[in-house]
Amino acid sequence: MDRFEGRCWLDWWANPVTLLGSVEVDIVVTTADDGTWEASGHAVLNDDENRAGFALLCDLDPVFTLRFADRSTIDVVVDPTDEGHSFVLTEYT
Q1: Each residue of 76-89: pLDDT tens digit?
Q2: What single-letter DSSP state applies at residue 45?
Q3: Burial label, 40 (beta-carbon count in 10 A; 0-12, 13-18, 19+)
């Protein structure tokens, strides 16, 4: 995979059984020859209340589970680049 563009979800878990929030996002992921990847995107939020909730979760703990349509997941750190709408993702290690 050199590039992925699509709809995913950022899930914020309080613990292994309690999902506190899920945000629908459009992302672009690109990979380099050395196997590293870069990802950015924007949240699909239709009102200010949802934007504020997403921003609050990012402030509390920026670690989310990125869930793809096929239900595969990867843990990521969300770094907002504007007022809670656009962001950059890095792999959580």
Answers
A1: 999 998 766 899 99
A2: -
A3: middle
Residue 64 has pLDDT above 60, yes or no: yes
Q: Which pLDDT belongs to residue 84? A: 61
| Chain position carrying tokens 């793809």 | 68
Q: Are 10 and 78 in contact (CB under 8 A)?
A: yes
CB 70 within 8 A of CB 78: no
Identify whether the C-beta of residue 13 lies closer than 8 Å to the C-beta of residue 29. no
Residue type present at position 5: E
Contacts of 70 (CB under 8 A, 6+ apart): none
Enter the pTM of the model: 0.88
